[in-house]
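hey can u check if this looks right to u? its 179 residues, i copy pasted from the old doc so theres a chance i mangled smth
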Amino acid sequence: MKNNKNKIPLSGKNIYVDKKNRNVYYNKRTKQGFIINEQLESSFKTFSNRYIIGFVTFALVQFLVLENNVSPIIAIVAGLAAFALCEYKYRKVLNTCPMIQNFDFEKATKSIKDLKNVNKNVIILRSVLYLLLSVLLIANIFVSEAIKESAFTSGISLLISLIAAYVGISYLISVFKQK
């Protein structure tokens, strides 16, 4: 794994680094590890966020539907379609990864510890962008008449805003914890 100071390392709930310094995704249900090499890292990062991609697609289409007085079923179908496509691609990426049977994740280290090797400016920039997104989504609730009128869409906007704020604050905390 290259040590690029401007690249945020692969991290997440079930991502570990084994003794050979390889990123390993551990599937707790099947008790299998998948080695995520550098060529697949970007695809894995994208498609592992399949739930978020589906939800954000739903939310964006919902905002468009409100503006044009179209059935909200279109937003639900679009969100489910985005999720299904990402799920398919995610499984396809995992199928190309070398598998480790009975991976002992307790002997591996969590990859989030690699964040200390990343340039602080990159982490601060990401944090600021997430916090800015959070503020803009809240502002959009008050500015857009269609969103103001729909409690459901306002709630979606607020939820996405809270998630963005959480991620931004998490990045800031990681910067302050660095020495």
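Strands lie at 15-17, 23-27, 32-36, 99-101, 109-110.
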